[in-house]
Amino acid sequence: MMCKVLIFGCIAAVILMTAAYGVPLEKTKLSPAEKKKCLEASITDLALLKHIDNNFLDFYTPNDKQECNQTTLACFLKELKVLEQDVEENDKQHVINIGKNLQDFKDPDFSSPTCKKCESNEKKKFPEFHQEMTSFLQSL
């Protein structure tokens, strides 16, 4: 009986070590070429959303591009989550792709008391939001 317990214990340990082997503890940073590729893919996906006619929702639309670009990015990502809930199924994947591609641009340690919060930005309809986000991504 003890032998079976010991054998199953060893097998469980090997399985756990095998599953964990090679998994980085920290997220690896993207190279500049990979970042450029993600940014271009996001701009392309965003262009495919230009046709959306969403006149019933307002989006907080930041226009700080230089010194507060981390805050601006976080705001656009937050508003994309709102958009994801209200677009048709065929556009939803583009919104999800943009969010995933831009996650690597976020700096979790960024903090600036001089940058305004997302909710203090002007609310705009989707066409203006789309234009501001496109302009922001092109400036990155």
TrEMBL record:
GO terms for cellular component: extracellular space. Residues 1-22 form the signal peptide. The keyword Secreted applies. One of its GO terms (biological process) is neutrophil activation. Keywords: Cytokine, Disulfide bond, Secreted, Signal. The keyword Signal applies. InterPro entries: 4_helix_cytokine-like_core, IL-15/IL-21_fam. It is found in: Secreted. One of its GO terms (molecular function) is cytokine receptor binding. Pfam families: IL15. Belongs to the IL-15/IL-21 family. This is Interleukin. It comes from Rhadina sibilatrix. The gene is Il15_1.
